[in-house]
Amino acid sequence: MNWGTELWDQYDNLASHTQRGIEFLDKYGNFVRDRCTIEQEYAAKLRRLVKNYQPKKKEEDDNEFTSYQAFKNVLKEIGDLAGQREVVAESLQIQVSNAITLLSKNLREERKKTLTEGSNLTQNLTAQVLALDRAKKNYEKAYRDSEKALENYQRADADLNLSRAEVEKQRHNMTIKSQQSDDAKNEYANQLQKTNKLQQQHYESALPDVFNRLQEIDEKRTRGLKEFIKGAADAESSVAPIIARCLEGVVIAAESIDEKEDSHKAVEKYQSGFLPPGDIPFEDLSKMDPDLSNHSQYHSATNVNNHMTHRGTIGANKLKKRTGIFGIFSSNKNTLSTDGMKEDYSDLPPNQRRKKLTSKINELKHKIVQETAAHDGLMKMKSVYEANSLLGDPMSVEGQLNESAHKLEKLKVELRKYQQYLEQANSVQIAQHSPQSHRNLQNGQRMSRHSNGSGENEDGDDQPDDAGSLSSSSASPESGLGTSHTSLPGSGQGSANDQVMNEDMYYEAEPLQALGTCKALYPFDATSEGSIPMSENEELQVIELDQGDGWTRVRRCTGPNGWEEGFVPTSYIESTLYA
User: Fold this and answer.
1) Which of 79, 317, 555, 567 could form a cystine bridge with 541, CB 3.0-4.6 A?
2) Contact in structure between 188 and 135 (CB atoms under 8 Å)
């Protein structure tokens, strides 16, 4: 079936039908565009949701639990889902929406051109019909005039009273009118023939061609709509496997949650390593010295209170700061890291401290490996430059080599420092679990300042040492206290820990005797407490030798009566000792 033969007389209806079809196509195009907008907004909201629920920095410690890791993986899969929604929106925009706009434009142009041609054909046929009507009217008028002229001639010819001239005049008029009637008749016949021929051509050929082209336009529009709907479905189905994998990932993340493992990790995270307090001994007051009875009661109370730790870590009693000459060389244990903890993590429970120190050591080892690789690369570059000067100046990398060497030395020094912290933490842990330590704790005996860095005044008050013990702090290269067990005899340091100190003040110490001089080979910026900066070629006094930790204690004279002491890296100086 085609419109040219079946709908030959429905020109106006076909024009209206094709117009509504194109408008429907535009409507579907608007639907696709609105859907693209919704998909994009949905994807953006999903991404915003994922971003808002990403683990915060303060929650990083909890990320080791399987439930937190599973939720993090779920967020990742939801982010991938958002990406697939964006893919759907992009496919709909490019493959469907833009194609609909282009097709609609082309269909409108073709329809306009076809209707214009059909309108011209109709106008031509109408004009021919009007010409036929005029020819017919002229023929009818001429025929009536001819009949009338014939009747007048016959009447004049029968009238004997008329002269022959008048009769001849009527005959001549009849002849003219008859001729005009014949001409009008011929014109009418000619116009009728032309009109019939044009009308036949119009309804059998020209107009059907127009209607067939309108049919093609409408079928093209319908076929395009069909493809566009399928294309929209294909855009959705193309990402369906990826969406299914995302959902499978969510299921896998859920199945990865292990409540037993989380419980075990909670133990690892919060276990302090401290032993539970022992039984409080019974004190028979009738068998004790009355003077010692009061002291024993107070001592037992303080022992019980000491076990009540703040957040399971350090004692909640406020630590008192000690002042005096050693204040300028305060221990780096008081130095807080970026996370608010002490540098050696001594404010953490034993188990947590060892974990932090081990993690820090592994981090430093990784940095040393990276810096060593960079240093080796610079050395190779320098060797290449020395072998072929056209490639570059060997001295151009000398500065980078020195900087890399300094950085590598700093990392190694810091690694040794944290390794010593770890050794100290392990030794303290062993001591806490020793039977003798447990017995001492049960008997209410307090350890000396050499073990736990606390002293007792005359009233029996414990004065905590915020910097740790003097003897143990000497293990730190940058402690600045200089109270090493291996200090030279006569320096006055070996007996500093054995003397009873006041609650808030140390004794005033005499300056240590210089062992020699040193010259700075490189500039050094003091980055932690206990160390002092120095500039290149600066001369200083050596007052304590390197004890194997990579640091040497030096003194700088700042005036007639002023001096400054601290530690510098041994590899940064060239020492000359006195004989």
Assistant:
1) 555
2) yes
Cα distance between the two ends of the chain: 122
Q: Are the C-beta atoms of residues 320 and 502 closer than 8 Å to each other?
A: no
**Residue 167 Cα to chain centre, angstroms:** 118
The answer to whether the CB of 386 falls within 8 A of the CB of 397 is no
Strand pairing category for 516-520 and 573-577: antiparallel
Location of structure tokens 């540098």? 343
pLDDT, tens only, 491-509:
333 333 343 333 333 334 4
Residues in the chain, total: 579
Going by C-alpha positions, the residue among 280, 275, 240, 276 that lies closest to residue 87 is: 240
17-49 burial string, b = 16+ CB within 10 Å, else e?
Answer: ebeebbeebeebbeebbebbeebbebbeebbee
Tens digit of each residue's pLDDT (9 = 90 or more) over 263-277: 988 888 887 777 788
Positive or negative, the Cα torsion across 538, 542, 548, 551?
A: negative
Place of tokens 């009308």: 199
Q: How far, in Å, CA of 468 to CA of 496, rounded?
A: 14
| CB contact at 8 A, 539 and 527 | no
In the structure encoding, which two tokens stand for residue 574, read together? 């060239």
Amino acid at residue number 488 = L
Whole-model pTM? 0.51
356 has a pLDDT exceeding 90: no
Q: Is pLDDT larger for residue 330 or for residue 541?
A: 541
Maximal CA-CA distance, the chain: 192
Q: Would you tell me how many other CB atoms lie within 10 Å of the CB of residue 418? A: 22
Query: 28 to each of 23, 356, 361, 444, how far by Cα in Å?
Result: 9, 62, 64, 87
Q: Are 540 and 573 in contact (CB under 8 A)?
A: yes
Spatial contact of 87 and 239, defined as CB atoms under 8 Å apart: yes
**Contacts of residue 351, Cβ cutoff 8 Å, sequence gap at least 6:** 268, 271, 272, 273, 429
Q: Which of 193, 189, 199, 351 is nearest to 270 (CA)?
A: 351
The string of pLDDT tens digits covering residues 389-401 is 777 787 877 888 8
Taking residue 465's Cβ as centre, other Cβ atoms within 10 Å add up to 20
397 SS3 class: helix
Q: Would you say 346 and 376 are in contact if contact means Cβ atoms under 8 Å apart?
A: no
